[in-house]
Structure formats: structure tokens, C-alpha cells
Amino acid sequence: MKAVVISAPGAPEVLQVQERPTPTPAPHQVLVKVHAAGINRPDVAQRKGHYPPPAGAPADIPGLEIAGVIEACGANVERWQKGEAVCALLPGGGYAEYVVVDARHCLPLPQGWSFEEAASLPETVFTVWHNVFQRGQLKAGENFLVHGGSSGIGITAIQLAKALGARVFATAGSAEKCRACEELGAERCINYKAEDFEEALKPEGVDVILDMVGGDYIPKNLNLLHPDGRLVFINAMQGAKGEFNVMQVMQKRLTLTGSTLRPRDADFKAALAAEIEQHVWPLLEAQKFKPVLSHTFLLKEAAQAHTLMESSAHIGKIVLLVD
Ligand SMILES: NC(=O)c1ccc[n+]([C@@H]2O[C@H](COP(=O)([O-])OP(=O)(O)OC[C@H]3O[C@@H](n4cnc5c(N)ncnc54)[C@H](OP(=O)(O)O)[C@@H]3O)[C@@H](O)[C@H]2O)c1
């Protein structure tokens, strides 16, 4: 099969198409013929050599999510049959014509959406569901803020929070990105390059913040949180270290938490998939939550896709068309 491999750590050009053996499913796995593979920012970190894949994942093929058709099932797989269309969360290996994946990490292709749209969902939906609704405990009627509102994560968080009854606020780096966030359901998106988000949101305050920025956003986030507020980190693109006032955490009874999805064990991801199928798939099928594709590229154009992602010019998801 053809696969995009990281030939050496480095710039997007290190992504090269090579021939690899088609994998064979273990008893608990399915083999999927990939039609489309989503691209996520962690793939860029892996390409640069900063985010090694967990044990068991392909060592040099990036790709955390795909959609395609089941080609074969392992001996213990009961739920799926050859020929069924699915999308799946992977620990790596998605930029390829075939992948093997734990059968429990597959979800049915949501009705009304294409393979490329479905391939854009698993990584961000699993991350947002766990961090915003499980760790952050966002409830209907609460105020929610997501930084990086136009990112793949951001467009997912805005729509799910809105669909489940929260008031949604976002930050993004241009007026165009802010307009897109507001069209997706944010009551207000602050262009952080033109306005201080803390000043802008002070009159409202927020209950839950999903933060991928870190650095000097940390004290600003804490200032904005209501009593019993929750701050959830999923990255620290501006720096992993920042100052905060412990008294403020105590006086407002704040919760600071965060997580990384990829190294979590297979049972955790299976439980998350089941919850997502129950709570998020009906929203997709009712068109209350939609995939947002910025650009699609061919498998052989993976380097261009990474260049676009690193430019941060995109709004929503970038997807590779494999088949
Ligand atoms: N913890 C987890 O389990 C997990 C899982 C998946 C993703 N993530 C993280 O979630 C974030 C979003 O991922 P994604 O795939 O959705 O990314 P993405 O679509 O590439 O979006 C990232 C956005 O962040 C903003 N940005 C880029 N560099 C920045 C910087 N230095 N400071 C502040 N903002 C910056 C840019 O928008 P602006 O123009 O608005 O700045 C950019 O569009 C990434 O940091 C990723 O590593 C974490």
C-alpha cells in the first residue's frame, strides 16, 4: 500500500509517499480501506520530531483519524462487517491506503456526511468531548470560552457547546476567523490581535475555558473564571510556563486540569467512543453540528497540507483524500 512517511524529522518536505506492507488486523481489530484522513496540529509536532507515537502505533506514518470502508475483521470483532463505512480514531498511521484499528474506536459514518467530512471528526470530537464535557463539566446555561476558535478543535468546541446549551465565546487571530466562529455559534469572538480578550469578556465572565495557548493567557484566564470555574489545557502553544495567583484559585475554588488524548489506553478511548456515539452522532445526523472543511489535498500533497496548517491560514479542518 501507499503511505506518507516521515522520512526524517523536519520541514513539510520530509513527508514522502512510500510503499509499505498492508497491515493485518489482530483479533480485536478491523482493517479499513482509507478514503480520507484528517490532519491535526499534533501531526506537525510529530513530523518535527517533538511528539513520538505511543507504543503499538506505526513509528513513522502520521495520522490520527480516518474514514473509509471495512475491508476485513479480526476473529473477535462482532460489531462490524466487511463493507461498512466508518470513521475511526487512531494512535497514528492514518496517512495511508489501509489502517488497522481497534474495532471499538470506529464509529459509523454519520448519515448525511461524506468520507472527507467524517475523516475530519474523530480527533477533535474525542478531544473536545473529554476535555470540555467530561473534565470541564460544561453544563447548559454556562458560559464557555475556547481559544483558537477557528482551529479544528475550536470549530468543534464552539458547535458542541452551543448545541448542548452553553453560551459560547471564542478568540481567533483575524476578523475573518472571528466571523466564521460567530457563524458557527459563538455569541462573540474576540480578535486577540486587535483587542484584549480579558477586557472584552470581563463583564460576562466564563465558567469553562478550553485553552491551547498557555503562557501569558494563564493569569488572564483565571481572572475571567467565575467561582467554581474550570480551566482545561490541551496544549501550550505560547509556552508551558506561566504565573498564577494561588489565592485566586482558592478564593474562587477554581479547577485547573488538562489532558492529552493520544497516549490514553484503548479501553478509555473505547468508552469515549461509545459516549460520543450516544451524544454527538445524533447532533451530526440532525445537522446541529457539522464538519467544517477548510481544504482537501491528495495523499501525495501531504507536505502542502502541513505547510498550510503551519501557516494557520485555514479555518476548520484540512483533510487528505486517499482513495
Ligand atoms: N491535548 C490533546 O489531546 C489534543 C488533541 C488534539 C489537538 N490538540 C491541540 O489543540 C490545538 C488545536 O489543534 P488543531 O489540530 O485544531 O490545530 P489547527 O487547526 O492547526 O489550529 C491551531 C490554531 O491555533 C492558533 N495558533 C497557532 N499558533 C499559535 C500560537 N503560537 N499561539 C496562539 N495561537 C496559535 C492559530 O489560529 P489563530 O490565527 O487564531 O492564532 C491556528 O489556526 C493544537 O495546539 C493541538 O496540539 C490537543
- Provide the low-confidence segments as ranges: none
Q: Which value, in Å, is the CA radius of gyration?
A: 19 Å
- Number of helices, where a helix is a run of at least 4 consecutive DSSP H or I residues: 11
Q: Assign the CATH architecture of the largest domain.
A: Alpha-Beta Complex
Overall average residue pLDDT:
97
CATH first level of the largest domain: Alpha Beta
In percent, how much strand structure appears in the residues?
25-35%
Secondary-structure content class? alpha/beta
Q: Count the strands?
A: 15
Overall spatial form: globular
Core attributes:
7-stranded mixed β-sheet; 2 domains; binds NADP nicotinamide-adenine-dinucleotide phosphate; alpha/beta; 323 residues; Rossmann fold
How would you describe what is shown here?
- The protein has helices spanning 41-47, 115-119, 122-135, 152-163, 175-183, 197-201, 217-224, 246-252, 266-279, 281-285, 302-311; strands at residues 2-6, 15-19, 29-39, 65-73, 85-89, 98-102, 106-108, 143-146, 167-172, 188-191, 206-211, 225-233, 255-258, 293-298, 317-321.
- Strand 14, helix 11 (302-311) and strand 15 form a beta-alpha-beta unit.
- It is α/β, with parallel strands linked by helices and 323 residues long.
- Helix 3 (122-135) crosses helix 4 and helix 3 packs across helix 9.
- The strands form three sheets. Strands 3, 4, 5, 6, 7, 14 and 15 form a seven-stranded mixed sheet that branches. Strands 10-9-8-11-12-13 form a six-stranded parallel sheet, sandwiched between helices. The protein has a two-stranded antiparallel ribbon with strand order 1-2.
- NADP nicotinamide-adenine-dinucleotide phosphate binds at residues 40-42, 123, 127, 148, 150-153, 172-173, 177, 212-213, 234-235, 237-238, 259-261, 309, 312.
